[in-house]
Amino acid sequence: MNNDKILALESESSLIKIRDVLDSVDAFLKASTTHPQLHDDLALVLAEVFSNIIRHGYGHEQGKINLHLILVPDGVKCVVSDSGAAFNPFTLDESMPAPDSLCEGGYGWSLINALTRDLAYLREGDENVLQFSVTEDPPSGTGARVSDRQDIAPPQT
Amino acid sequence: MQFSIGQSGGALVIDVLETRLDAAVALAFKDAIRSATSNPGSPVILGLSHVEFMDSSGLGAIVGAMKLLGSERPLELAAPSAGVMKVFRLTRMDTVFRIHDQLPETHALSAAQ
Question: Taking the model in full, what pTM does it have?
Answer without folding.
Answer: 0.89
